[in-house]
Amino acid sequence: MRFLNFKMTAKLRIQLSQINSTVGDLDGNCAKILSEFKKANQAGCDLVVFQEMTICGYDAQDLWQKKYFISAVKEKILEILNVTRGSKCAILLGAPIFSTSRSQKEVLFNSALLLENGEIKKIINKKSLPKYAVFDEQRYFAADNAISCVEFRGQTLAILICEDLWDERNLFLLSEQIFDTAVVINASPYSSKKHQYRHKICQNFSKKLAKPLIYVNQVGGQDSLVFDGSSFVMNSAGEIILQMQEFTEDSAIVEIEKDGKISAKTKQNSLSTKTARDYLACLLGLRDYVQKNNFNKVLLGMSGGIDSALVACLAVDALGSENVALYALPSRFNSEASMVDATKCAENLKINLEVISIEMPFSAMLMTLDDISDLAKENLQSRIRGNILMTLSNSSGALLLSTGNKSELACGYATLYGDMCGAFNPIKDLYKTEVYELAQWRNENMPEISAFKEKNLIPQNILEKAPTAELRPNQKDSDSLPEYEILDKILFHLIEEKKSVTEIISAGFAEELVKKIAKLFYASEYKRQQSCLGPKISDMAFDKERRYPITNKFTK
Fold first, then answer.
1. pLDDT tens for residues 142-169?
2. Predicted confidence (pLDDT) per residue in 311-339, tens digit
3. Contact 437, 431 (CB under 8 A)
4. Which residues are catalytic?
5. Average pLDDT of the residues in 71-93
6. Residue 458 class from Cβ within 10 Å (0-12 exposed, 13-18 middle, 19+ buried)?
7. What is residue 61's DSSP assignment?
8. Distance CA 157, CA 45 (A)
9. How many Cβ atoms are within 10 Å of 488's Cβ, its own excluded?
10. 3-state SS string over 196-245?
11. Range 507-530 average pLDDT
């Protein structure tokens, strides 16, 4: 049966579908699109809306520069088009599209495509291309200069693509247009305060233009980026009438009357607390990094400390106990209490802790290198552990997880080719104080997306004892660093707020301490740039958005 035309309707029934797309998995992404399309069709929807770059995934980076990649995406568009023939439901999705510019040159656009009844009814190109933080779209795409509104079954939709919404110039241009509803497709990565920024921008848009707004966002992990989904719908007063789930695939239906009244036909979801969201972002980032890179299992070293305990919890939540291996690698300096704590934590996670003493290789290395400094002896233990864990990873095919936190990486309190070994670090963008917060939260809560359905996983003694690397007798972190409550505040000023040493001292911190921390921070750039990936949680993570030279004498 073929619908040759679609009559104007009194209201539009629209399904929002936030899917977990994978960069380059065109077949898998296409299958998800068609599954959601089928569901929308069965629900009697006029339109199903997906996120930015639905078919190819975001952030595809230099894949976008390969013409044969864009051609492969085009083939998938044709496949999807064919499925829409004779269907009442249309599709709005995102894809990279070649088009001819005014100068008759073929250029690539970040586009939204309206597919209806076997035809591309409209191509809308992104106007505002971000080139800040983790974004570098101007490297790949041309910017359009026209605001696009689409006539669709009796209503006019203003179609925007992510950054278009954040650009005040587009708000002005739309104020001169006549439209009924704004539809925004997004690939907006998570950070702790991102939902506040989004809601503020969207409320400003809806209130100023007195129009409802549909916001559909990507969900899933992509290298160091995590997309939280959290799609929503606002009415013309800037009130959220539909909130979709966080950190998981979800779909919802809204109906829009011609007079602008918009109503949700799906259950409302509530947003989590900041700590919960941060934990879920770490969990999803880890799960997708492992699974999308074709690994099944992970392993890590358990010291009996808070960092490795939290990473172990995240690993079990992400993959299940059966897919996580835990190893303790004690030396002469590790206390019996630490072994007890590590063993208890492993038991809580339903994992048998494997114990491999490093005493023999450590003693052999000391005999071979009989005249090395005390610091080198400490780091030697870490490098022996890293060597053993990497060998176990190599032998088993399990991915090694690193367990260093942001405070340690910031100050260089980490050993290259030692505890920094690993392919992914789930807590890389968490300050030490945040590590404690997330650990306490996980003990008291059980995430819905977790593969492990128990609480109280981390022993209380791990939460309460003073942190230590245990590389020399009676060692504590506070021997080398200030208390983490103070250190993390100084680092936050230095990193996230980009304040100078003088400004931080003026904020009330001791001059000598601030200068010491700043010196450690700038001197450790070479280490950070060799560290493995981890999920972006803050507004200034170390992986993609903070770009500093290693060779640098300006450290004020």
1. 999 888 899 999 999 999 999 999 999 9
2. 999 999 999 999 999 999 999 988 889 99
3. no
4. 52, 126, 162
5. 97
6. buried
7. G
8. 16
9. 20
10. HHHHHHHHHHHHHHCCCEEEEECEEEECCEEEEECCEEECCCCCEEEECC
11. 96
Instruction: Pick 276-476's CATH classification: 1.10.3720.10, 2.60.40.10, 3.20.20.70, 3.40.50.620.
Output: 3.40.50.620
Q: Which residues are CB-contacts of 87 (< 8 A; sequence separation ≥ 6)? A: 3, 37, 41, 117
Burial tier of 153 (Cβ tally within 10 Å: 0-12, 13-18, 19+)? middle
Residues 6+ apart with CB under 8 A from 375: none
Length of the chain: 556
The number of CA neighbours under 13 Å toward the Cβ of 14 is 28
CA torsion 445→448→454→456, rounded to 10°? -20
Buried b (16+ CB within 10 A) or exposed e, 223-239: bbbbbbbbbbbbbbebe
What does the pLDDT look like over 408-459, one tens digit per residue?
999 999 999 999 999 999 999 999 999 999 999 999 999 999 999 999 999 9
pTM of the model: 0.94
The two beta strands, 149-152 and 155-161, are antiparallel
Number of Cβ within a 10 Å radius of residue 453: 9
> Cβ distance 141 to 164 under 8 Å?
no
CA-based nearest residue to 50, from 259, 211, 250: 250
Contact 57, 73 (CB under 8 A): no
448 alpha-carbon distance from chain centroid? 18
Contacts of 549 (CB under 8 A, 6+ apart): 525
Task: Give the fold, CATH level 3, of 11-267.
Answer: Nitrilase/N-carbamoyl-D-aminoacid amidohydrolase (3.60.110)
Band of pLDDT at residue 543, cut at 50, 70 and 90: confident
d(CA 77, CA 73): 6
**Cα dihedral 270/271/273/279 (nearest 10):** 120
Domain boundary assignment for the chain: 11-267, 276-476
Question: Is residue 253 within 8 Å of 15, Cβ to Cβ?
Answer: yes
Write the single-letter amino acid at 219: V
Phi, psi of 13 (to 5 degrees): -110, 115
From 167, 180, 33, select the one nearest 113 (Cα to Cα): 33
**Under 8 Å between Cβ of 307 and 427:** yes
Q: For 43, list phi and psi in degrees, rounded to 5.
A: -85, 5
